[in-house]
Design goal:
This protein is an alpha/beta fold. It has eleven helices and six strands. Helices cover 53% and strands 13% of the residues.
């Protein structure tokens, strides 16, 4: 499927445009059926491999690219990194049946904004796409548990390093980072801190620069490591 769409992009009253990539047609059909249940989500194009996904993202400029990890020609992790380079306004979400730590780490390091398991609750697909489209990072609960477990296993040294990193932040930036680490979108952070969304975006941009990270997920990991977020 590769139908014509509006070039207005996402915004008030417009659906969340998504490019879906998976080499198995049956899986694509299932994911499309789940996401199509939400009237605010529009699958604008489908790809059967990573290279095709990149081309479709460049053509359609969707808000979200939902990418399977294992695909021919180019895997989803490499495609996510390339999409981030070529079309930074598109958020890449990794979709997979695998939950191994090395996949999670590679996805986060590559700039993915979310990580969803195909074996998870179908409602997670919709929640993940909506959250990422709203500017938040999203990890499925099972993935989040694995990440937090890994952070705890890192012990005192990782926590000390993270606390040193956040020492460069202002008090307000720490407040924003803590809520970002809890998975809140810019709009939700604004409501909590009584800030307009544009101001929150400016804070988030400054936080990423000060921490030396590429995306919200990596910043959220630092927030957890530094103890700014209650992992429970």
């Amino acid at each position: 499927m590769d139908r014509a769409v509006s070039v207005d992009g996402d915004g008030a009253g417009n659906p969340i445009r998504v490019v879906l990539a998976d080499d198995e047609a049956v899986i694509r059909a299932g994911v499309r059926a789940i996401l199509s249940a939400d009237p605010e989500i529009d699958i604008v194009a489908e790809a059967a491999d990573g290279r095709e996904a990149i081309e479709l993202v460049r053509r359609h400029r969707p808000r979200v690219a939902l990418l399977d990890i294992r695909m021919p020609r180019l895997d989803g992790l490499t495609a996510a990194a390339e999409i981030r380079r070529l079309v930074p306004e598109t958020a890449a979400v990794i979709l997979t049946t695998f939950g191994e730590d090395d996949y999670i780490a590679r996805a986060l390091d590559g700039g993915a904004s979310g990580f969803l398991l195909k074996s998870g609750d179908p409602r997670e697909l919709i929640a993940g796409v909506r959250a990422v489209a709203d500017g938040a990072a999203y990890l499925s609960p099972r993935v989040a548990h694995r990440v937090i477990t890994t952070l705890r296993a890192g012990g005192i040294s990782r926590g000390r390093a993270a606390r040193t990193q956040i020492d460069t932040l202002t008090d307000r930036e720490r407040d924003v980072l803590a809520l970002l680490g809890a998975g809140l979108s810019n709009a939700e952070i604004g409501r909590r801190l009584f800030l307009v969304e544009g101001t929150v975006k400016s804070y988030v941009s400054a936080i990423l620069t000060r921490l030396g990270v590429r995306n919200r997920v990596q910043a959220a990991v630092i927030a957890h490591e530094a103890g700014l977020v209650d992992d429970d």
